[in-house]
Design a protein that fits this description.
CATH class: Alpha Beta
Order of helices and strands: EEEHEHEHEHEHEHEHHEHH
Helix content: 25-40%
Radius of gyration: 18 Å
Shape: globular
Distance between the termini: 41 Å
Largest sheet: 8 strands, parallel
Number of strands: 10
CATH topology: TIM Barrel
Structural class: alpha/beta
Strand order of the largest sheet: 3-4-5-6-7-8-9-10
Bound molecules: NADPH dihydro-nicotinamide-adenine-dinucleotide phosphate
Number of domains: 1
């Protein structure tokens, strides 16, 4: 089943499966079982973060799966408490230790936090860790165009991805266009808006027309726009449902109708002002 999932080129011979499995809000004690189930149904891309406190359990599940760790693409992200270059370098090593069996394939600056730190400093830590062979591909998350422009001013290395909140109520056209222009792959977090978009009459109507669930309709819309997605579910049935996306397609009218639902509605923080308080 894993072989059916297309991959997206991140450069340097690194390819990311376009569909993965997210583990935000899965408690650490439930993560190993959830990831084991996800690997069993066919996912080969796991999206975690230092802030989710479940990196070790992701590594444990990959270890116990019997799969070659190289077959599973793992993304993690820098914790929000790390403000300086040195703190970021130590934290990157912590992720490598926590994942144990597998080096992170992709490591991201989780949020820019422009009100509390200079994000170009932690970006430099990722650049240097990559040059030292500690990390493979590096990118960012929740960066706005202005943040990406500032990185361009200080660094020759372009982030390979920008992972942003993106779903039919927040279609993020300017950021997607900027990414396409600069070779930055767009990844969608909360691809089904944590369920918010699944009751939308347009989404439900298209699902009824083609005999697919609302979640499948929305996830397919993402894939056809070239976006990388990793829905979260702790239900084995919904994990499998979210993977059955490659035996149907949406036509141009259906794609346009879903894109037209945009209302610039965030479910999470605004990257310009968001800060995490410990
Ligand atoms: P999602 O949009 O993936 O939605 C998850 C929710 O939808 C869960 O409540 C889940 O419930 C439910 N669900 C999943 N599949 C279905 C389905 N087929 N039908 C009905 N309900 C369904 O939200 P997330 O916020 O988890 O985003 C996905 C991933 O994105 C995260 O796990 C994380 O990896 C990443 N992320 C990154 C952020 C960042 O700042 N970079 C921020 C937020 C997320 P159930 O488990 O019961 O199935």
């Amino acid at each position: 089943m894993a072989a059916d999932i297309p991959t997206v080129d991140l450069g340097d011979g690194i390819r990311i499966p376009q569909l993965g499995f997210g583990v935000f809000q899965i408690p650490p004690e439930e993560t190993e079982a959830a990831v084991a189930q996800a690997l069993t149904v066919g996912y080969r891309h796991i999206d975690t973060a230092q802030g989710y406190r479940n990196e070790k359990q992701v590594g444990d599940a990959i270890d116990a799966s019997g799969l070659d760790p190289d077959e599973v693409f793992v993304t993690s992200k820098l914790g929000l408490a790390h403000m300086t270059y040195d703190e970021a370098r130590v934290a990157i090593d912590d992720t490598v230790t926590a994942l144990r069996v597998t080096k992170p394939d992709l490591f991201l600056v989780h949020w820019p936090l422009p009100t509390v730190r200079d994000y170009t400093v932690v970006w430099r830590a990722l650049v240097d860790a990559r040059a030292d062979g500690v990390l493979r591909a590096i990118g960012v998350s929740n960066f706005q165009i202005a943040h990406l422009e500032r990185l361009r001013d200080v660094s020759d290395l372009v982030p390979v991805v920008n992972q942003i909140e993106l779903h039919p109520y927040l279609t993020q056209e300017p950021l997607r266009a900027y990414g396409a222009e600069h070779g930055i792959v767009t990844e969608a977090w909360s691809p089904i808006a944590q369920g918010l978009v699944l009751g939308d009459p347009v989404v439900v109507g298209i699902g009824e027309e083609i005999g697919r669930s609302p979640a499948q309709v929305v996830l397919r819309w993402h894939l056809q726009r070239g976006t990388v997605v990793f829905p979260k579910s702790t239900s084995p049935a919904r994990m499998a449902e979210n993977l059955r996306l490659f035996d149907f397609s949406l036509d141009d009218d259906q794609m346009a109708a879903i894109s037209a639902l945009n209302r610039d509605q965030r479910t999470g923080g605004d990257p310009d002002t968001f800060r995490y308080t410990y």
